[in-house]
Give the backbone structure.
Amino acid sequence: MVRVSRPPGAARCRLLLPVLVLLLCGHIAGVAGHKSGSALTVVNTDGAVGGDEEEEEVTVGDEEEEVTVGADEDLDVVQPTEHWQTLKPGQAVPAGSHVRLNLQTGQREVKLGEEQLKYRTPEHREEEQEEESRPSFSPDELKRAMKRMKEDLDPDPADPDPNPDHQDSAASRFRPLEELKQDMAELDLLVETDVQIMGRLLEQLNSSAATTEQRLSLLLELEYLVHQVDNAQTLCSMGGLDLILGGLNSSDFRLQESSAFVLGSALSSNPAVQVKAVESGALQTLLTTLVTAQPLHVKKKVLFALAALLRQFPYAQQHFVSHGGLQVLAELFQQDGGGILRTRIVTMLYDLITEKELMFQAGLDPVTDPAHEERRRQYSRVSLQGELGEKGWCSLVPQLLQSSEHDHREKALRALIAMAPACSDQYRLQPWLLDSLLALRLQYQDLVHSEMILGEENSYFSEIVELIDTLHVKLR
């Protein structure tokens, strides 16, 4: 379809209209019988081939010209807008677009059709504005740019760089290989293994010129290292265990606390260090430190080291009982008014009782597991339950029930149940114990009821109620 643009003025239109009709007829007659080289092509925007008449190609100026749809995938398709834009030779337009021949300029122009404008939204206009603002590149320009990129990334070794300044700037960004090797060698000299670090720390700790603050810092670094099993054993082989035990005998409470902390960390779950410690007299040193007047923070760390020495080590437990360790703990229990040390002591006794019971409950065949049978023989020599009854612990542990802390009460109940085989008769001789259990049960039953209202089941307080009921049964 050809739309004729009227020049301004009605008079001029009436004069030019006949002339234009004659020119158009002559043009049609001149091109009849051959195909126009500047034919206008309409392509289907959805990529379909064939279809109805609206999707076919239309040629302006030659009604007999053949029509092909989508014949060339590289066809230059113009995206029409709301405004008229000029068509270049060989360009195609989407189906449904409006095309006209501008008789003033002789150029073909295209814009969106009415159906396309009907579904036009502001977002489409914004996208078009963004596309128009973006820089466009022709295929040739893109090919040249890609070629330059390839030459920059992979230069021809046979073609020297014509720009010497570029070579100088590139060389300045990199260091020679020899310098890098020298720097790496120097860095290797600064790398220390844990063994080297521990040797250096022990040497400085043993130096008479070291101040108290320096010793505290060295002990802190050692404590971090001896958490590893191999490092703790290396500490013993280097003679560091004697230095640590010497710190426990120091007159400075800070050094005693730090030394006990290092010793406890080295002993934890490390049988080899436990054996070395007992051979070096660590058990006697720890008990002596607990007997002497020490601040609370020092005694807490010493108890930590003592518990680490005794756990899973029946030989040390036997020596602990035979050397009056239970009497030392009993005195410490009676001196503690806050309950912190009491709870730690009761927890340690509970662990010692239960680990022995678990050992005899395992029931392994001594033929298939001789090591287990040997450990059972060692535990059989530890008469911990009988010593607890004789040293007054059956009346000491119930005192922890009077604490206001739930954790302290829980630890006391568990220990009382574990001690029941040796202390049941003495429990019954303490009438206040039964009354205390009844009062505690009422208190925790209310707490359990409150938790059930909130939708909590199997709560912490319900476990305490079960412990109270278990102990109450043993007292009957």
Remarks:
- The mean pLDDT is 79.
- The radius of gyration is 49 Å.
- DSSP finds 23 helices and five strands in the chain.
- Residues 344 and 452 are 31 Å apart (CA to CA).
